[in-house]
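Handout, section B. The chain below has 518 residues.
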Amino acid sequence: MKSSASAINENNRRFILFYFLIIFAGCLTGLITCLVTGMQIKWFVVYLFAILFFLAFTLTKRPKKFALGFFIFSIPFFIGKQIISSGYQLNTGGPSSLGIFLYDIPLLLLLVYFVAEKVQNRDSAFYLPSVFYPLAFTIIWGFITFVNSVEPMLTIIETIWLCKMAVILIIMTNLVQDKKDLIFVLTILIAGLFIQEIVTFTQAYFQKWFTFTGDVERSTFLEGSHADVFRAGGTVGPHNVQSAYYVLLIPLASGLCFSCKKNIVRFVLLPIILSGIFALIMTYSRNGYVSFIIAMTAFVLLAWHKNFITRHHIILGVCGITVASLIIFTLFGDNLIARIRSTAAIGPRLEGMEIALNMVRHHPFIGVGLNNFSVAMSDVNYSPEGLSAMQQTYFGGEFIRTAVHNKFLLVASQTGLIGFCLFMWMLYIIYSYAAKLLKVQSRFYGGIGIGMIAAMIGASIQMLFDIYNSDLLITIFWVLVSIIFISHKLHSQEGKGALRGRPLLRQALRGDCCERSY
C-alpha cells in the first residue's frame, strides 16, 4: 500500500513539476516577446497566449490535432512581429517584410510532427500534390528574377514567403489523414468565418478600424476622411482583403451546407452564410460584390447539376434575395450608390495597368523582379510621363506607390511571361482537381468540390481588379487549395486504395496527384 501510494505521490510531483515548467516556458516566451517589442501593452495578448498554449498543449490527449486546429483557427488573426524589413511600407507587389505570425507557433509544431513521423516510419506514404510542381518552379523562377530586381531584398523576402506556403501545402496534405481530420479542419475554418463576421459588424457599428493588436490606422490603406463611406474590414485585413476572404469562405460553407443531409448542420451553416453575405456588403468592395455574384452563380449551376439544390430551393432563394435586397437598399442604399458611383480609384488602377504592360514589353521573359513592381514603376521606361499625383497620394499616405491592381499583370510584369505561364499552370491544376471532386459519388467531397470551384472562380475574378497578395489572405488561399487535394486523396484512398501512377513530372503535367512511399 505504501509503495503504491508513494508511486502515486511521485507521479503527482512529476506532473506538478512538469506543469510549472510549462508555465515557466510560457511566461518566458511572453516576457521575451514583450522585451523584444519594447514592452508594448498590446503584446500582453501574446504573453497570455504563450501560457495558455503551452498548458493546453500539455493537457490535451491529441497534441497534434490540437496544433492543427489552432493553426487553422489563428490564421485570420493579424498578430505578428516583424523580424526582417526592407524599409518599404505596405505592399510593394508582395510582402515588404518578414515576420512571425501567431499561426507560425502551431505551424512549427506541425512541421516537427511531420518530420518526426517520416523519420520514425520511413516506409509511410508521402503525398505530393500536383500543384506543388508549378509552385516549386514559381519559387525557383521568382528567385532567379532577382538579377533584374531594383531591390533584391524584396525578391528574397517573397521567395521565402512562397517557400512557407509550399511547406503549409505539404504539411496539410500529409497530416490530414482521414475524413475526421478533414471535418475538423473545415469546422475550424467555419468557426473562424463566424468570428470574422462579428469583427466586421463591430467595425461597421463603431465606424472604426481595429485589429487584435491595437493597430488601427496601419490596418488599412485609406483613412476615414478619404473614403466615400466607411468600409469595414476584419482581422484578416482591410476592406478589400476582407471581402476576398468572404468570397473564398462563403462558397465553401455553402457547398458544405447543401451537400449535408443533416438538418442540424444546415441550421448552423445557413445563418453563418447569410451573415457572411451581410458582412461582405459592409466592406463596400465593388470588386468583392462582382466576384461574389459570379462565384455564387457558378455555385448554383454546379449544385443544380449535382442535384444538391432543387426548383424549390431556387424559388425560395429568389424570394429571399428579393426581400433581402429591399431591406439592404432601404438601410444602406445611399451608401451603396455613393460607393458604386465613386471613380477615385479607377484612374490610378488604369495607370498601374499601363505601367505593368510597359514592364512586360521591356522585360518579356524575366520581368522587373519578383516583388519589385512598386520600386520600379517610376522608371521612365515604364512611366514615361511620370506618376500622376493621384497615383502618388491616393493609395496610402506616406508610401507614394502601389502595385498594379491586377494579379495576372502583376505576375507577368514582375516575373515575365515565363512566370505568368507557371502561374496559369498552377491555377489550371487547382481548377482541374476541384472539378474532379464533382465526379465523385460522395456528397461530402462533391460539396467541397462545388464550393471550392465557386471560391476559386470568385478569387480569379478578384485577381483581375486587385493585388491579391495580402499575407494572411494568401495563407488562407493555400490552406483551401490543400483541402482540395486532401479531399481527392481521401476519396481515392476510400475507393481505390493508394494511388499508383506515372513518373512524377509527367503525372503533374497531366494533372494527377502523386503519392509515393520512401
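Note. DSSP finds 18 helices and four strands in the chain. Compare this with the example in section A.
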